[in-house]
Design brief:
Chain lengths: 694, 330
């Protein structure tokens, strides 16, 4: 046991403590931090996908009134190299992908900087580029490991032989396109580098991560850098690892020697160098006996990476863990391309990797003449199929049953294309969700201090990227200290605070919360219930002894109703309903927002989002929010999120499992399955657009 | 983006004279398209003449029963106007099908007509585009063409015009009133926009310095029986895959008159004259509507990504007309 907290503040429906500041416009986001006499940066980006810069003529730009500096690969300050090719910009004339940052203009106003950037004349020696992902490339390779440390390939039993002999079978290829994270607040950096050190106000998911990377990239001490991020307008993973825009801004700040430099990306630039979700090609094979029990399950995934830095999305994870099957094979293969470096986007691996198997399960249900929920129940494993460990808790079946009850699943027509209402084909679909409980012992430290005005100040370098961490951590601290919520003052978002893990992997509450609990317990142990002003204790999140004994994941079930217009093929989703089992819910209000937000993003993935690469030019051509469609309000009708009361004593003292990402996992499959049920047309390639039903 | 001067127009004549006399000047309406283009380097005017303060912001009844829509009438106001909704529902529906609430609050009638294509290559100055730079080539022709033309395109340009309003005005045979340095002229809505031919850079027949001052809607009694249908990739804030503006006059089971225009299929709002001709005087039946749609689309030349538009357009034409004929149309 982890010594579960007795919940009092935890579980309370608290309004966001940062809400009033945000809605009154007084919460400073990165760009809004007042700095004296700022200068403004606009980048120069490569207009070829591969080659070398032979010349950059900057005289016209330099000559423009108000231009303060122009940086090129030929004169930019030097960085430490050989560590991270994504970040080592302006260090060589090589171009590795179109849109790469190859220069910068710093000027008195953003408008002058933008104009001057357009006056920089770049000459290139082009080389042929290759940005075409396909499953039959001859240069696909096997990465050593995949994101989050998973295995590249797995094999249990004889998946091919068992598949060949299976009574019921599904063998199909599914694809998910490239997606770009588009948080409402674009990536923004304000950097000031003077004799006292380097100060960075950044839109980031982790101030300490950022500081560490900037220190190693610039070859300076972490103690000379301060990173501040009290409020962040969304990240979805794209602000989880530092990208080249930060390096460019700091390079410019170094050149400007003391004068702060501001750089906020344009929306178009969001499609070039701050990460994206790789497209995936997934070949799924399911073999089952006549009762629908899986005898073989495999998913072989092809994805892309950049040639200059490997990123391998762990898309096989769901196939490894969701269902029992004695024979199983999974593999990841990468195509190295002349493209920007893929990175994290909400539920990397789990999200695209749940789509294909969960649609395949729907196809198998049809092949077995079984209800899709019943098929999943029949394949519920007793222990984790990947590790063989027992589950710390697993309530997938309960989620499916509770979802079916709430959604009104009973009486659903077994046959597809059987309901026509007022010019719409109507159908319903279901899919499972899961997301692992990530934890990074030792990553996060917190300090609890009793102040002169008899309040408890809790200090930790966590970041709230809009999730509700400001509020949830205050609730956890209150319970850990056994004091009212109102007695706690939380301090986050600054490297001046104790080090904390990145807001990623749905692990913020697990890592930060546990550190706070440790610090609070140490504080009470030392000072008891009657501390004196100035008393403080600091503690670090410990190892979890149970991670070796149990498999830990959150689970969920997603239900969708889909309508497809009989004339136009247009797809609408009037209803989405999710039921989740994600441990203890710290704050129902912010949790609901996380689940509903994830499901909405899943709807957007199902119906709309697709980054379109023009292979001739080598870049994403629909690079703004008018052309890259994200679900609009009119697309999002009823979205309901519910959760089971789940008590898991093994995950951490709060009993939480992480809720930031599971909401997007499985949504697209539920919608695809509902679209099939509505129309009889099986769409295996996202997005599910009107033309596919004509 | 370059620095520019900004001037508020005091009156129509001086605004027209100013822009006519300066090839680098441009009229500014709601700014929802031009200002984006200035940021992206697609348009580089030295001088903006803001015409939104001119008193051209009324919807007036004309003596013949038609309506005159001032060029500065905001899209939201146009769609909400009671006479527009009553007499020309296709127009109100078309406007509401376009853009988003925020954009419609700002966008003007004249500006809506003169908005430029959303072709992704036109909007990115790092790719060749004949519309932006004549002679540079067309990146779309062998590129991403989901939203591109299936009718009336040329090897120089396969872009489509994005306006919904213009499609409805074409169906209604509206008249565009234009002020120029030496007086006034009128242009039929269906003739305002051009097919690209060898001059993709010219979206419309207007000369530099000509200012749209109003759009006149002719009296058309059966326009009360009209509708706009738009198919798109999301429920709001998306340009048409295909749209249909239709008005139908049926008596005794026969088509007395019909108006039909398509959006999302060509470099201009597509006046479906072949279909209209095929239907006029004939039976108001689904078979006849299908035959008319087929006649209109017979010359279509889809691109690799947009062949679906033919089936989509056919379905939508038939569906819109059947709806107007009454669901019991045989």
């Amino acid at each position: 046991m982890t010594g579960l907290l007795r919940p009092r503040s935890i579980g309370a429906n608290r309004q966001r403590v940062d809400g009033p500041a945000k809605v009154t416009g007084t919460a400073p986001y990165a760009y809004e931090h007042p700095v004296p006499n700022p200068a403004y940066l606009h980048p120069v980006q490569a207009t070829i996908a591969r080659g070398d810069i032979t010349d950059m003529r900057t005289d016209e730009a330099v000559g423009l009134d108000g231009v303060l500096a122009v940086l090129t690969p030929f004169d930019a300050p030097r960085l430490e190299t050989g560590q991270d090719a994504e970040l080592e910009i302006l260090q060589s004339p090589e171009v590795h992908f179109r849109g790469q940052l190859i220069g910068a203009v710093v000027a008195e106003t953003p408008e002058i900087a933008r104009q001057a950037a357009g006056l920089v004349r770049v000459s290139y020696a082009r080389r042929d580029h290759d940005v075409s992902l396909s499953a039959d490339r001859s240069d696909l390779y096997r990465p050593d490991e995949v994101n989050a440390g998973g295995e590249t390939d797995t094999r249990q039993g004889d998946p091919d032989g068992a598949f060949a002999g299976a009574a019921r079978a599904v063998d199909a290829t599914y694809t998910t396109p490239m997606y770009h994270n588009n948080p409402m607040e674009p990536h923004t950096t304000v950097a000031s580098w003077d004799s006292t050190g380097l100060t960075i106000y950044d839109s980031t998911q982790g101030v300490h991560t950022m500081r560490q990377v900037v220190a190693s990239t610039f070859g300076i001490e972490e103690s000379d850098i301060r990173v501040v991020a009290p409020y962040v307008g969304g990240g979805f993973g794209s602000k989880g690892t530092p990208h080249a825009n930060i390096v460019l801004t700091v390079l410019a700040a170094k050149r400007m020697a003391g004068r702060p430099v501001k750089y906020a990306l344009t929306r178009q630039q969001m499609f070039s160098f701050v990460g994206y979700r790789t497209p995936t090609i997934q070949r799924v094979r399911l073999g089952a006996d006549e009762h629908g029990r899986l005898v073989s399950l495999s998913n072989h995934v092809v994805e892309q990476t950049s040639r200059i830095k490997e990123y391998a999305e762990q898309s096989c994870e769901p196939a490894r863990k969701m269902y029992a099957a004695p024979n199983r094979g999974t593999s990841h293969r990468l195509a190295p391309l002349d493209v920007p470096v893929p990175s994290w986007m909400r539920a990397p691996g789990e999200c695209p990797g749940m789509f294909a198997p969960e649609v395949a399960m729907d196809e198998l249900a049809q092949a077995c003449d079984l209800d899709p929920i019943e098929l999943r129940v029949r394949n519920e494993p007793e222990t984790d199929p990947a590790s063989g460990l027992p589950f710390s808790s697993r309530n997938l079946v309960a989620c499916l049953r509770e979802g079916a009850r709430r959604f009104g699943w009973a009486g659903r027509p077994a046959l597809a294309r059987s309901t026509l209402e007022g010019g719409w084909w109507v159908g319903t679909g279901v899919a499972s969700s899961a997301y692992p409980v990530h934890q990074s012992p030792g990553s996060s430290t917190a300090t609890v201090r009793f102040t002169a005005d008899r309040r408890y100040e809790v200090r930790i370098g966590a970041v709230d990227i809009g999730t509700g961490a400001w509020t949830a951590l205050t609730q956890i601290a209150a319970d850990a200290l056994d004091v009212p919520f109102e007695d706690v003052d939380l301090r986050i978002g600054d490297t001046g605070l104790p080090a904390a893990a990145v807001a990623g992997g749905s692990s913020g509450i697990t890592n930060w919360g546990w550190a706070i609990v440790e610090a609070a317990r140490a504080f009470r142990e030392k000072f008891g219930a009657g501390p004196s002003p100035g008393d403080e204790r600091t503690a670090t999140q410990p190892e979890n002894p149970h991670t070796e004994r149990f498999a830990m994941s959150a689970y969920g079930a997603q239900f969708a109703e889909v309508r497809v217009d009989t004339d136009t093929g247009e797809v609408r989703v009037p209803r989405l309903l999710g039921v989740f089992a994600a441990g203890r819910i710290v704050n129902p209000r912010t949790a609901r927002s996380q689940f509903v937000g994830g499901m909405t993003m899943g709807l957007s993935m199902a119906l709309h989002e697709e980054s379109v690469t023009d292979e001739r030019f080598g870049f994403v051509v629909n690079h703004d929010l008018a052309e890259y469609h994200i679900a609009a309000c009119a697309d999002v009708r009823s979205v309901e999120a519910h959760w089971l009361d789940e008590h898991d004593p093994y995950v951490n003292p709060m009993g939480t499992k992480g809720i930031g990402e599971i909401g997007i996992v499985g949504t697209a499959a539920a919608i695809a399955n509902a679209a099939y049920h509505a129309t009889g047309v099986r769409v295996r390639d996202l997005p599910i657009t009107a033309d596919k039903f004509l | 983006m370059i620095p520019f001067d900004y001037r508020r127009a005091d009156d129509v004549d001086s605004a027209v004279a100013t822009v006519t006399g300066n090839p680098r000047a441009a009229f500014l309406g709601g700014g929802t398209n031009l200002v984006d283009h200035m940021k992206l380097g697609i348009a580089e005017p030295e001088l903006l003449v803001d015409v939104t303060g001119l008193p051209l912001d009324r919807v007036e009844e004309l003596p013949d029963g038609g309506l005159r829509i001032g060029t500065n009438v905001r899209n939201s106001d146009l769609a909400a106007h009671p006479l527009v909704r009553e007499r020309y529902p296709v127009l109100a529906q078309a406007v509401l099908a376009g853009a988003s609430g925020q954009l419609r609050n700002l966008a003007t009638t004249g500006g809506n007509l003169l908005q430029r294509t959303r072709c992704v290559y036109f909007q990115d100055v790092t790719t060749p585009c004949n519309k932006r730079t004549p002679g540079e080539g067309c990146a779309a022709l062998h590129g991403y063409t989901r939203y591109h033309a299936v009718l009336g395109a040329s090897p120089h340009c396969v872009a489509v015009h994005p306006s919904d309003l213009a499609v409805a005005l074409t169906a209604l045979d509206a008249v565009v009133r234009v002020r120029r340095a030496d007086g006034e002229r009128t242009v039929r809505a269906s003739a305002l926009h051009r097919l690209p031919g060898a001059h993709a850079e010219r979206d419309t027949v207007l000369e530099h310095g000509e200012l749209i001052t109003a759009v006149d809607l002719p009296p058309l009694r059966f326009a009360a029986n009209s509708r706009y249908r738009k198919a798109r990739d999301r429920a709001s804030y998306a340009f048409a895959l295909v749209s249909v503006a239709a008005a139908l006059d049926v008596a005794d089971g026969r088509v007395r008159d019909v108006r039909l225009a398509l959006g999302g299929v060509a470099h201009k709002p597509w006046h479906a004259t072949l279909a209209e001709h095929a239907m006029r005087g004939g039976p108001a039946t689904v078979d006849a509507f299908q035959a008319a749609a087929d006649a209109e689309l017979a010359e279509a030349e889809p691109l690799p990504d947009n062949g679906f538009k033919l089936k989509l357009a056919r379905n939508m034409i038939v569906s819109a007309l059947r709806g107007l004929a009454g669901e019991d149309a045989p």
